[in-house]
Each structure stands twice: as structure tokens, then as C-alpha cells.
Fold this protein.
Amino acid sequence: MKRTRLVLAGVLGCVLAVGLTPTAWASTTYPAEQSNNTSTCVAGSSTSPADCAAAFAGQTDTRTGIETPLFDPPGGNVSAENVRDLLYPGSATKVFVNMMLGFCTPADGTSSPGIPRCNSNVLTQYTSDNTATVDAHLADFVRRGIDGAVMDWYGPGSRVNDATLKYQAEIRDRGYCPGGPQQCQVMYLIMYDGSTLKYPVSWTGIPNTTGSGCSTSLGGTDTENCIVARLRNDICYMNGLHFGNDAYQKYNGRPMLQFFINEGGMYPNLPKTGPAPSWEDVWFWIRQWTDNMHVNCSGAPAGSPNYAADNGMPLLLFENAGGFTHAQSDGAFDWVNPTQNQDDLRISPASTGGTVDNFYATSLNYLSSKVVWGVAYKGFNDVQSAWGANRLIDQRCGQTWVLSLASARNNGYSSSRQLPFVQIATWNDYNEGTPIETGIDNCYQVAASVSGSTLTWQANAANGNANPATISHWLVFDSTDGGSSYQQIASLAAGSTSYDLSGLPAGTHTLFVKMVGRADILNQVSGTVTYASSGPSPSSWIDEQVQFLANHQLPDGALLGPGNSINPYFANLAAVGLARADTATGNTVLYKWMQWYLNHLNSTDSKGLSDTIYDYNYDPTTGAESSTGHYDSVDSYASTALNVAYTGYLTGDSRIQALVANNIGTYEAIANLDDYRAPSGVRDTDNLTMAVPGGAKYTMDNSEVAGGLADFAQLEAALGRTDQHNYYLAWHDATVSAITEKLWNATKNTWDWALGSASDLTGTFYPNATAQLWPTLFGVVRPDSTDATSAWKAFTDRWTDWFDDKIVDSYPWTAMARAGQLNGKPDQASHLLSTLHDTYAPDWGGNWYDDEAGWFILGAKGMDP
């Protein structure tokens, strides 16, 4: 194997492969691609809480003039694209959702005509402290890449606190926190809801605290004293039961605590600012308390939790841009601030207080000293809320969502100035029409049709606000069993409207197109259409590659590779393709190359080996060819020369057959490089071949050796040389046994890329991923063997879009097409060939080298190397 690819591709792979956690495209069904995948209550859905009381029906505003009437759709098939992609390129922002915890499912007397409610709340049909609900939410968070939840919290002893503790426990028990403190896959923190101050909660028993509710009719001094004592109680409780938990989100080692309190409104006798009694003075005393909690939170009755634990002084965060200058503020979180004007999205301009732009513009002044929490929202509509005030922000079919997230980018945040946190308002506040849990409807419907060999589709807008900015990309699915099961065969850019079907295998295909939305947008699918294919890649594609190689052949037969080099390994792979193409032009190119190869063998090289071959350089100015005095790997150069000899002989071309027969002794000397031990060959005592130079025992090289010896044994048989056939077949068998015994990693169910070097599929594509393909490509194992299927699964689990020419490597690795065919993915293999053709034709420049042409022919012909 030509390992110079490791140098060329490795740097790029190391940079771009970091952090990718894709999921494999397995076989799917048409219903599955449009079914609910959220934690919303949907009848028969496997992702909904198991104990839903009923299906959530969605919410519609039927008033005249409402631009987006369906403001909360029923749960559907929601995009799992990364929310951070909507913030700015390179965003490392932590994304949290605000959670409204509810506990009531049957409708009661608080309902209105057509609006079933329970305890004045719109019915979600689930209960937040049920384990099934918690688990469904956590799974949905992880699927969508959400980092955690901000719990709207009502104090110790409340059902909201019980639910929060349930989330805490399930994060631990479901394995979401394997990395220890601050390393959980799902984190949480508390938003202290000020309305809880009016109601009693559990008392910690700590001196100078209270669990009593604070009446709104108290005088100013009594109000302040009550609120201070109550906040002390609740914060000490949080310190004992929440702040020290592995999953509680901290910032620079300090737990964050958001306050959602209507200061100056909820308690009429307590002004927001000024001397005591005031909210400003409340926060002065709370700061004194939290700065010394290990003392102030002590003194609870025996048997109480450790309320005085040292979990870091909490950071006090307050609402909106004014939160940065709020008394005792450690930072601010933005929130949705609706009016009664549906067209005022409250995103811009930055000069207007209460807008998202204003918050971000203000936050830049505090980014280095305080915590910043941005906001994102889809809209707002409280028409079905029991306390609704006709406040409204129209969703504009997902545009509001996209614009609210883009505000960070538009106001100074970037990969070099990161926004620390963003809070989605909300996950499930159905009372105010803000939940993203069900998905956001972008008001498109998808229609598809087939004309000739072209699949076309269009996104039809059901609302004038529908906008392509809400579309991420398109997926094409294909079924060859009449629609029972489907495979994804293409992933195309958002602006795409067609797909060429001419590369599909012969037979009847049932297809559909799926519109994948931007993050949290509802996906949509087309109806199914059929296409009758006459077969895969047209023969003209093969002719193109033959001509490409003919154009890169020098008069003496040398085949040019990268940068005017003559690389015998690359050229041998190209020559195998030429042999399989078996055209008049191709056979002439092949014959001339075989002559060149035989004419340039070393009598004795620098390592003391005979019948090896060096790489050469070509000077186009003088026409001179000069040896580099170097080869990359003796075993691969030799074994692929044996492939060429056998496949060339099979063409039946009299020139090639005579060349092979007349030089069979020389080819045996080449073969013996791979079966003799040192000093005459490169085989070791364990029956693996060593790369010379270097000494490593590579899986790819040894697979090529096995394939070369198998072909050469068949060639000897074709020439009537039975003893020689048996000899080389025995060495082939020994090589296969050594590979399967010594290079298969039973622990990881993958091929090691070299003896003693396990493959890391999260690492560079070559050699970690390519090592999974080579044993199948070169016949070491059958495609249906356990080793082959396990290696293929590992490969596709890591490189889900291998067929889209999207691997992180500077080379196209066209060999994947043939590997896909062997592993039962002919549609995806054909798609890869079609994609590569679209990318490189007609010039076939860039990194399209002679070996890629050979692999392309093998894929197009459906033949082994």
C-alpha cells in the first residue's frame, strides 16, 4: 500500500475529524422517516413517554389575521441538525432548553370551550415527575445535541423539585454522566421562579431562614425580611441537593442560578431599587449569605442533607440586558419579550431595549467579567393560556427561530468570540406557545416526480412565510423490494432540486425525497415514485477512464501518477482496471505498461532484494525518467504486479498472453518476494509480510499479498503449471490464516491497521478506515463472513456518508464503490461513482490519479481487483 497517503491526508484528517459523532444510515421504512421522533405524546410512538394519557393534538390560533395559525404542531419527525450551526460557524456554545414542569393530565374545570386544561395549564398529556417522561426528554435532548435543561423551579418540597431530582437521578442512572463532575452528556441548572415566594415550601431548619410564603400584602420591611429569609432557605437547599451534583452546570467552578422574578411588580410595597426596604437591598443580603454558605447554611437539624457543603459560591444571574447592571449581578440571561404585535419579532433593532440584538450588543461590554446567556425562540402565543394577554410573536414558519439564533452572529459573536451559553425559550411551555419539543413547522410540503432518468422535487409553500433558510438538506431514499425497506442513497444541498438516477442498478426502484430542516424544524417527505433502471454506470464512463490512462501514458509505456511521478503501485491498480475494461485501447495501454514494468525491475536493490521496482520521476521538459532509488512497500508493489499479470492474461489479448507466458519465470521471482523470507523476500516467520522499508506488517499490504498470490496461482493453472499453482495457493492460504488470526481485533470487531496497532475509526480515514475494506476487496474474507460484516459496520458507523464523497481525506478513495458492492450496497456504490463523475469529469484533474481510474473501472464493471 502506498503509505505516502498517510502524510498527505493525515494532516487534513486530524484537523477535520475532531468532534464528529455521526450515526449510521441503516435500512429504514417510509413510515419511519415521517414518524414522531420526539418526546411529545404521540399515539404508538416509541420515543414518546410510555405513560402518556393521550396524544397531544397541537394548538392552532383561529383568529383572523394570524400569520402562522398552527403555532404548536403535534409531535412529528424533527431535524436533529446542530443548533450551533444556526448561531455562527465554529460555535462552541452550550445549548440549554428551558423546562416547564407540569403534573396534570385529565382536563378539569379550568378548561375553556375547545381548550382542555388541567390546573389552568394546557395539557401536554404527560407528567414531568414520571420516570418514563424524564427518560423520553433526556433521550430527545441527546438526539438533538442539547447540552442540558434549565428547570423552572418552585422551591424545596414542590413537585417541581421532585421532578428536578428525578432528572438528576435519571442522568446518573441512565449513564449520561460517565465522565464525572461537569462532564455529563446532559446537564441542568435552576431558574428560580419568583412566584414560588408567595407559597410555603419545605423548611431546611437552618437559622435565619424560612419556608413560609411571603404574602403580597405585607408592608415593605416585612416583605423584604420574609423574602430574604425565604431565598436563604431555598438557596441553602439547592446547595445541599443540587449544586454539588455532577450534572449541575457550573461556570469557572461556581454553580449558576437564574432568577425569574417580577421585581417591582409582584410585591407592590417593595420597590426595585433604592434604600431598604427594596429588592436592591434584598440582593445585598443574599450576596452576604451566599459568599459564606459553608457557615450560613449550617445548623440544620440532625439527619439533614449537607446544606453547608462547599460547592462554590453561586453565580446570580438576572433577566435581559438590564441583568448585567442588576444589583449583585454575576451575569444575565436573555428572555423572550413579546408584545401584542405579531410582526414585532423582538429580535431587532439593537437600539431597542428588550430585543435579542440589544441583549447581545450590550453583552459584549460584559463578556470578560460576567456570564452571558443568549436566547433563542420560535415565537410566542398565549391565546390558549388561562392567563393569556393576547401577546404574540409570529413564528413565520420557522424564520423567527432562525433569526433569533442568527442574532448572536449578527452582533459580534464568532468562533474567536464565543457565546458561552444560549437558552431556548422553551422546550415545553405550551401555555405561551413557545415549545420546540414538537418541532417547528416550516410550512412546506414536498412533491417528487420522475422524468426520464431524473428525479425532481420541489418544496411547495403552504404559507407565504415559508422560507428556504429553514431547509438544511435533502435526502433521497431508494427501495428495490417494492417499498418494504429503503436505503438512503444521496444527501444533497438545500438548493438541490434533482438527482440523476441513471447510476442505479437494473430493476424497479421506489423512491422518495426527504426535506431535512435546520435544527428543530419538522422534516417533510414526498410521496413515493417509481423508476425502472436499465443498469448502472454507462459504458462511456469506463471509456473515459481508459482514455484518461491512455492520455497519461508516456511513449515508453510508463503511466504517470501524482506530480509527474511514476508509481508502480498506483499504476498496477490502474492496469487491473484496464484489464477488466478489456477494450482495444485499454489493452494496448495495459500491454505497454506491463512491458515498462518488466523492463525496470532491479537486478539487486539497495536492500539486497532482486526483481523489485523503484518509483520514478518524469521531467516533462526533457522527457527523461529517473529512478528515485526508493519504493514504498515491496510486498504491495509485487502483489499488484501479479494481479496485473493474471487479469491481463484473462483479456485474451495475444500480445499480453505471450508477454506473460514468456516472462513467467520473472513473475515467479516477483511472487517469491512475498513468500520468501529474508534475505530474499519480505515474509516473516508469522507468515505476514513486512513492509520494506519500515518493517511494519500492514493489514492492507498483507491483503494485497493474499490477493496477488491467489491470482498468480490461478495464472499458473491457466498455463498448465499444476505444481506451481499448488505452491502459490498454499502460500495464499498461509497468508489468509495469518491475517485472520493476527490482524483481526476481536475486542473491537475491526481489523487492526497493522500488527499491534488497533484501528481508531475516529482517527484519520487512512489507514484506520481503509483497513476495514481491504481484506474484503482482496478476497481474504468473504463479504458475508462475520469479520467482513463487522468491519463494514464499523466503517459505515463512522463514515456514514461514504457514498457522498464526503470522507475527510484529500483523495476520493474510489475503492469504496467496489467495497460497497461487495457489502450489499450497490445503490450507494453507484451513487458514489456518479458523484465522483460529477465532481471530476470532464477534466479529471486535482487528486484524480491513475489508481483512482483503475478503481473506478472496477466499480463500474462490478469486478474484484
Observations:
- Residues 1-25 have pLDDT under 50 and may be disordered.
